[in-house]
Amino acid sequence: QVQLQESGPGLVKPSQTLSLTCTVSGASITTSHYYWTWIRQPPGKGLEWMGFISYDGRTYYSPSLKSHTSISRDTSKNQVSLQLRSVTPEDTAVYYCVRQMDGGDYPDWGQGTQVTVSS
Predict the structure, then answer these.
(1) Which of 4, 42, 49, 92 is deepest in the core (most CB within 10 A)?
(2) Which one-letter DSSP state was computed for residue 77?
(3) Which tens digits make up the pLDDT trace of 76-97?
(4) At a CB cut-off of 8 Å and minimum separation 6, what does 58 contact?
């Protein structure tokens, strides 16, 4: 069973960079056709797909977030990371690390981590 655990600061100041890490267990992040995705849910709103890094290191981002989002990986630690630059209070959300499959299935989710952007 694949398990994902998000970690990072719960509070970030406006204009700073939000950095989160997802530690994956039960599968290698280099397993073929696995995509490691970040999804967020602002308070009172729906889920927002942010982007992924693939099993072979390719990245793809939501067009609306591409200019200030980066997703990377550390294969030695089996971790995936998210960086969101120049955050505003509108970036306040629960952030989820998710395993995505070909065809758009999302079979495994982390528990999510709350990030608040506030001065």
Answers:
(1) 4
(2) T
(3) 999 999 999 999 999 999 999 9
(4) none
